[in-house]
Amino acid sequence: MEKLARKDVQALTPYLSARRLGGQGDVWLNANESPFNNEYVVNGNSLNRYSECQPEPLIRAYAEYAGVRPDQVLTSRGADESIELLIRTFCEAGEDSILFCPPTYGMYSISAETFGVARKTVPLTEDWQLNMPEITKQIDGVKLVFVCSPNNPTGNLLNRGDIEALLEMTAGKALVVVDEAYIDFCPEASTVDLLVRYPNLAILRTMSKAFALAGLRCGFTLANTQVIQLMLKVIAPYPVPVPVTEIACQALSEVGLARMKYQVLDLCANRAYLQAGLSMLPGVQVFDGYGNYLLVKFEDAELLFTALWDNGIILRRSPIEGCIRISVGNREECEKTLTFIRQQLA
């Protein structure tokens, strides 16, 4: 059957999510998930009927939270679907390109490859910022530029001035897509205020991280009305299951938002605990992080990673040489991880 598949798909290396990589243990700090398992009530009414394409209560609730108008919001099955929708909406297969800046989230590349859209890469600078001169050289033929801030896996924020320069450079030619999956941990760094000035800006959001709803698969695109209307032309007829709407609206209620903000403060405190503890160890470099994870460089990262894995502490290998990405869990998980690393490096 493989020969019946498109050649692009035959040659495709799939994105290796945390679940695909597997592992056995009781400390899971490899997928940037929240350790909080909040309770919700689902009434199960009307499951015999299809859901709305864009449920009005959910759109209104997220628009209020994000500080935009409802007509600037599209909800989807996670931010991953938004990536695909943008590529399908704006890129001609075999003609157009996307551009992204590794090291960064792997699904930009895979989604483009899946749809037969060319990929251009401009690696981040040594301090993991946008290489604006090189992007300028590569921008011809590009319809979408994907940037991630806080960036995964490095954890840093991109310079706001560079994002604005990128928006100016691409005006009338391409969309700049700012992936803000982790912005709830540093809301002051959001680019949402730039939507008023730049019609070619689209912002990706998710409820998987700070809202502790990774299993819900609920994401959002924030953009000007014209972009949203174009994306609605290609989205599936019923992308949002009824229980997803019910749970997401509860999470976006006054009580839900207060709980999320409290939990974010707790995770930021645990991140600081991990960063301080790891920084005191010999041969260890901890990079500043603004999401719910830290990128850490070790003298022998592979040996340490394997020891952790074999002892039920599941972290994430990084594409950056010598580095491991550590999600921030609850205090017990952080303490157990830090203690084990201390023992291994002693």
Automatic annotation (TrEMBL):
Gene3D superfamilies: Aspartate Aminotransferase, domain 1, Type I PLP-dependent aspartate aminotransferase-like (Major domain). Its cofactor is pyridoxal 5'-phosphate. This is Histidinol-phosphate aminotransferase. Belongs to the class-II pyridoxal-phosphate-dependent aminotransferase family. Histidinol-phosphate aminotransferase subfamily. Pathway: Amino-acid biosynthesis; L-histidine biosynthesis; L-histidine from 5-phospho-alpha-D-ribose 1-diphosphate: step 7/9. GO terms for molecular function: histidinol-phosphate transaminase activity. It is an enzyme of class 2 (transferase). SUPFAM superfamilies: PLP-dependent transferases. Residues 41-339 form the Aminotransferase class I/classII large domain. Homodimer. Its EC number is 2.6.1.9. Keywords: Amino-acid biosynthesis, Aminotransferase, Histidine biosynthesis, Pyridoxal phosphate, Transferase. The keyword Cell inner membrane does not apply. The modification N6-(pyridoxal phosphate)lysine is found at K209. HAMAP family: HisC_aminotrans_2. It holds the Pfam family Aminotran_1_2. The lineage of its organism: Bacteria, Pseudomonadati, Pseudomonadota, Gammaproteobacteria, Vibrionales. It comes from the Bacteria. It catalyses: L-histidinol phosphate + 2-oxoglutarate = 3-(imidazol-4-yl)-2-oxopropyl phosphate + L-glutamate.
